[in-house]
Amino acid sequence: MKITIIGAGNMGLAMANGLKLSGFEVSFAGRLSDRLEALKGEFEVEIIDQNYDISDKNIILAIKPNALEWFVNLAKGRANLIISVLARTSLEQIQAINAINHAICLPNIAAKYQKSINPYIAIGDTNLVEKILNGFGKAVKFDSKSTFDAASIISGCAPAYLALVAEAINTAAVRSGLRLDEAQAMTSGLFDSFAGLIKDTYPALIKDSICSPAGTTIEGVCELEKAGVRTAFIEAIRASLMKQRG
Fold this sequence. Notes:
CATH superfamily of the largest domain: NAD(P)-binding Rossmann-like Domain
Oligomer: single chain
Domain Pyrroline-5-carboxylate reductase dimerisation: 146-244
Largest sheet: 8 strands, mixed
Number of domains: 2
Domain Pyrroline-5-carboxylate reductase catalytic N-terminal: 2-87
Binding site for NADPH: 51
Binding site for NADP(+): 6-11, 62-65
């Protein structure tokens, strides 16, 4: 199956790499840019400078939200599928593009490794949508814009929050005597380990199973609670969600 990605940003390239690993044929299209030109050695690239024929194509729209009107005005014909990964953009807005099937999704850049969690809402063939989304991660269907918005913050924004956590752990490890490369290796291994733990266990149970009475772990947990880490994460999710909902 051939997928055309409109836009050559970090998210578009991450999805392209994941889809290639899954055996999809991937091409790019967009406005002339150095970034798009640089992809010519690896992908088929088409420059959009006038009317763009979308007939029968499976398209992932990965441009900036403020460029949506530009694409709507240039798109001609009827696509088979439009999947938008634009933030703060509704399914109704995407339906301005003529297509048989429409979907909105907020993945993350782990798509490069086929590890993105991909919440979506769709009108039309959800099997087709999921086949593509599962090509660079795991598709999760939602039925309302409200729940989709909340899920999209977890998928699209929270990886940046976790990057701050990883950076802080690295810094603490260096402060404690590890070299930066040693700290990075330990932190990376920590996240791999935690991914296995949280797959089928609630976070509170993981914490309680590690914290022994008067032990070293509970001392650290109490310091994090004293610093308001839990509340900070809750408020970060809320702030991003309010921004997403406009």
